[in-house]
């Protein structure tokens, strides 16, 4: 019996693991990656690319290696608990090499469309149109795994800031931020106290004249490192903390 063919869209963290899972289940994966390399979000680029997630140069992952590593391939002991983006990418490279995944990836290949076959109700198959070097190709697959991530498009609600069109300074989303050099000697306001907002406010403060951090509500600021030097997410992932959060709510 012929193996079922599965299309995997994207060769980031999810795409790589999907390829491996398909192989373990006796399926035939074909991964399409629009860029020329693996890594997805974690492959730093000097300039943001349209349709692709973007990170800043100093990004350090906010999940410890003990909590984020793949269960079948631990992160090396000599890596720090919280890794720089370059180390996360290197870990993915080691993972892909260990399980020989690269040969299943078609790089610089864009998926143009995915639609059901005319006989989908009986075959369950999908028609996938891809493009590489200006040439389109049509293939039929038994399944499609979409691994394109969800940090691709910036949310910049300018309508929430009346008068922004009169502002003479520069404004942009954190997706377009790369390093603090351009803010040297300037007064800067960072809007939002999520992970990116906190990171950028601290980093820009080293070069800017003054930095403000604006948030519409209060927030708990936790150190990545907890009691006795253990990663905070490792300490919080316990049954007692789970039950306390259920009783007291997520704001605990």
TrEMBL record:
GO molecular function, one term: N,N-dimethylaniline monooxygenase activity
Keywords, in A-Z order: Endoplasmic reticulum, FAD, Flavoprotein, Lipid metabolism, Membrane, Methylation, Microsome, Monooxygenase, NADP, Oxidoreductase, Phosphoprotein, Transmembrane, Transmembrane helix
InterPro entries with a match to the protein in the record: FAD/NAD-bd_sf, Flavin_mOase, Flavin_mOase-like, Flavin_mOase_5, FMO-like
Reactions this protein catalyses: heptan-4-one + NADPH + O2 + H(+) = propyl butanoate + NADP(+) + H2O; trimethylamine + NADPH + O2 = trimethylamine N-oxide + NADP(+) + H2O; sulcatone + NADPH + O2 + H(+) = 4-methylpent-3-en-1-yl acetate + NADP(+) + H2O; hexan-3-one + NADPH + O2 + H(+) = propyl propanoate + NADP(+) + H2O
Cofactor(s) it depends on: FAD
Localization annotation: Endoplasmic reticulum membrane; Microsome membrane
Membrane topology classification: Single-pass membrane protein
Coiled coil spans: none
Keyword Oxidoreductase recorded: yes
GO annotation, cellular component aspect: endoplasmic reticulum membrane
Keyword Lipid metabolism among UniProt keywords: yes
EC number: 1.14.13.148, 1.14.13.8, 1.6.3.1
Pfam family, any one: FMO-like
GO biological process, one term: lipid metabolic process
Family membership: Belongs to the FMO family.
PANTHER family named among the record's database cross-references: DIMETHYLANILINE MONOOXYGENASE (PTHR23023)
Function: Broad spectrum monooxygenase that catalyzes the oxygenation of a wide variety of nitrogen- and sulfur-containing compounds including xenobiotics. Catalyzes the S-oxygenation of hypotaurine to produce taurine, an organic osmolyte involved in cell volume regulation as well as a variety of cytoprotective and developmental processes.
Full protein name: Flavin-containing monooxygenase 1
Taxonomic source organism: Mus musculus (Mouse)
